[in-house]
Amino acid sequence: MVASDLADQGLLYYLHIPKTAGTTFTAILDRQFSAEHICPAQLWHELLRIPPERLRQYRLLRGHFYYCVRALLPPGTRMVTLLRDPVERSLSHYSHILREPGHYLHDRALALGSLENFLHDHETRTMIENFQVRSIGLDLDPVAMASALDADSLNHLMLERLVETAMPAGIADDELLKRAKDRLETFAFVGLAERMQEALAVLAHTFDWVMPTAYPNLNVSSNRLRREAIPMQTLDLIREYTQLDSELYEHARCLFEARHYLIET
Q1: pLDDT band (50, 70, 90) for residue 6
Q2: What is the pLDDT of residue 239?
Q3: ∠ at Cα 160 (240, 95), nearest 5°?
Q4: CA 179 → CA 87, 98, 133, 182, distances in Å?
């Protein structure tokens, strides 16, 4: 069964959290849809250029839009996502920023000179601090945020920066975590980046798809820091700043294993 043939099932949205094997997962999802049914936008400034009536014609949306894109999507949109061990995701995200001159925090990260300094800096730490919980739990209005920006700022990823660095305001940590957990439970599929082969089995069962027996690991960092090479005090700092992410990851693991158990029995 090919998803693009199932027009009555509406839109599928892949909430792509950075550094959770998303490039690989996107490539796998793309195989299930005809090219004309895949929304080409993967960043906010690209998405906002697409007329709402055109967006409703697509069958697959995937990108770094996080949960706050939900207000733009049609009723009945099915959502899927992958989560990753917070320490590993943090190390991968930091390595990615150092490697990519086009990232809006690249120069600042280089100037800071170390991962520990990156974690202590109030702006760069936003790439680490409970990033997965914020991606799912925060309620933002990117359309309103975009309206305050000029065209040049939009083209230089200022909207993406505002969305990704936004921190909770007026909401307690436990409430934000609960909101993220509750939302995750409504997703049609929740996978774990570290268990991709099992995740693909659950995905195939969920949507009645045929999955590849082998898949490439795309966008793998050649410079990624290894956990064993990081000083313990720095790892402890990451764990401190990703405590909510750890709780959300454990919740996702329970959801994933329950669904995986169903297809194994």
Answers
A1: very low
A2: 98
A3: 50
A4: 22, 32, 9, 5
